[in-house]
Amino acid sequence: MLVPFREILADAHQRGYAVGAFNCLSTEHIMGAIQAAEQLRSPIILQVAEIQFPYAPLELMVPAFIEAAQRATVPVAVHLDHGLSFETCIKALRLGCNSVMFDGASLPFEENVNQTSLVVRAAKAVGADIEAELGHVGDAQCSADIENDIFTVADEAKTFIERTGVDALAIAIGNLHGKYIATPQLNITRLKEINSLCNTPLVLHGGSGTSEEDFKACAHNGVAKINVATALQIAATKAVENYLATSATPNYIDMKNVIVEATKESVSWHIRLFESDGKA
Ligand code: 13P
Question: Residue 254's domain spans which residues?
Fold first, then answer.
C-alpha cells in the first residue's frame, strides 16, 4: 500500500528503527525489494535519484514504483532522491511521488533555506512530504571528499528544520556515497547532538558499506531512513557474473530472475540490520 513518507518515518523515529530507502533502477530491483519487504513484514521506500535518470528515467520509474506500492501488502513510500532543482521536484510530485528530496547541501545556508522552503511549499500544497540535506555527503570514490566533507552542525540543523518545515533531514556525519575504499567511521557523538536538538526524523545517505555497529547506532539515535544504492548494484552484478560463469545455457529470463533474487537477498539483509522487520 502507498503510505505517506512522514507516517512511515514517524513510526520508525518513535520506535527506534530505520526504514531502508532503496534506489531501484529496474523492474528486477523493484520486484526484489518488494518481495523482501513483504516476506519480512517491513515498511520500505522506493526511490530514484536525479543523477540516475540517464539510465532509470523518472517518467518510467515513478509509475512502476506507484503500481508496486499499491499492490504491496506492506507500507511503501515513493520518493525522489537528490532532486537537484525546484523543477525536478515539481516533475516528481506531478508523477505522483509522495515525497521528494531537494538537495541544496552545496548551497550557502541561507540559499539552502530559501530554496528548500519553496519546495516545501509546493510539496505541502499537494499533500506530499519533503527531505532536505544540511552538511555535505561526498563521494567515497573521491579521496578529496573525505577531507572536504562538511559535517552537519547540530544547532544549524535545528534552525534549518524550524525555518523550512521539512519532514526529514539528511545529515553528514562521516558518511559518503558509493563504494567505500575502507569502512567509514561515523561520528555517532555528532549524531546524538543533532538528535537531541532536532525532534525530526534524520536520514543517513551513503548506506552501502557502513559497519553493522554504525548502522544500528544510527537507527537507535534518530535516523529513521537509510539510503542504499551501491550495495544493490554490487549484489546484482556479482550474481550475474556468477550466473554467466556457471550456466551452460545462459538466457535473459533466468538472468532477470537472478537479479531479482540477489536484490531480495541484499534488501532482506539491510531490513534485518535496520530492525524494520516485523514493523509492518
Ligand atoms: P550508497 O550508494 O552509498 O548506498 O548511497 C545511497 C544514497 O545515499 C542515495 O542517495
Answer: 5-274
Closest CA to 228 of 207, 211, 209, 210: 207
Is 86 among the domain residues? yes
Ligand 1 center from residue 247 Cα (angstroms): 31
With a cut of 80, say whether residue 119 has pLDDT above it. yes
DSSP 135: S
139 is catalytic: no
Q: Is the CB of 206 under 6 A from ligand 1?
A: yes
* CA 246–ligand 1 middle distance (angstroms): 30
Calpha distance 197→21 (Å, rounded): 24
pLDDT tens string 186-244: 999 999 999 999 999 999 998 888 899 999 999 999 999 999 999 999 999 999 999 99
Protein residue whose Cα sits closest to atom 3 of ligand 1? 206
Nearest protein Cα to ligand 1, atom 5: 206
In a domain, 100, yes or no: yes
* Domain presence at residue 25: yes
pTM value? Answer: 0.95
Domain count, the chain: 1
Report yes or no: 167 and 5 within 8 Å, Cβ to Cβ: yes
Is 145's pLDDT higher than 60? no
89: amino acid identity, one letter? C
